[in-house]
Amino acid sequence: MTPKEVLDLVPQQEPFRFIEEILELSDEIIVAAYTFRPELDFYRGHFPGHPVTPGVILIEAMAQAGVVALGIHVLSQELGPEEASKYTTLFTDAQVDFSGVVEPGTRVLTTGRKVFFRRRKLRAEVEMRREDGQVVCSGTLSGMGIPR
């Protein structure tokens, strides 16, 4: 599948989609980009006067790229694009370490590398970096494709 075809199948939509563009895609790796726009609603309360992107949102962004989008692509290789479109990849677990913050207006690049894919479960090593190269968070995330 092309990056655009995969992005079109990602089920999360605005205001809860944290992938704008897929820059690289293969059976083993994905690189996706997203800019955290300053007007996003969660910044009003996290934290007033010095907003930062909540960690749970960073994990969601990592899962959308490194598990959901990569999972769609890998599943399409196994089943074909039409059959793969009948599945939704759900995030199942994560072990993530945080090493930086993402402020409003920051563009991040998320890289996911497949660890394994079997029985429609994908485990990936995922890393998020700010555009300046600073690692924000990294870890192991998993998800599973289920019929819609």
Sheet with the most strands, sense and barrel status: 6 strands, antiparallel
Rounded to the nearest angstrom, the radius of gyration is 15 Å
Average pLDDT reading: 96
> Strand content of the residues, in percent?
35-45%
SS-derived structural category: alpha+beta
Put simply, the count of helices is: 3
Distance between the termini: 20 Å
Q: Which strand order spans the largest sheet, edge to edge or round the barrel?
A: 1-2-4-5-6-3
H-E order = HEEHHEEEE
Proportion of helical residues: 10-25%
**Principal-axis shape:** globular
Are there runs of 5+ residues with pLDDT below 50, and where?
none
How many beta-strand runs? 6
Keywords, please?
148 residues, 3 helices, globular, alpha+beta
What does this structure look like?
It is built from 3 helices and 6 strands, in the order αββααββββ. With 148 residues, it is of the alpha+beta class.
Give the topology, please.
Layout lengths: L2 H7 L11 E5 L3 E7 L19 H25 L1 H4 L2 E12 L8 E12 L2 E10 L4 E13 L1
Antiparallel strand pairs: 1-2, 2-4, 3-6, 4-5, 5-6
Concise account of the structure shown:
This protein has 148 residues and is of the alpha+beta class.
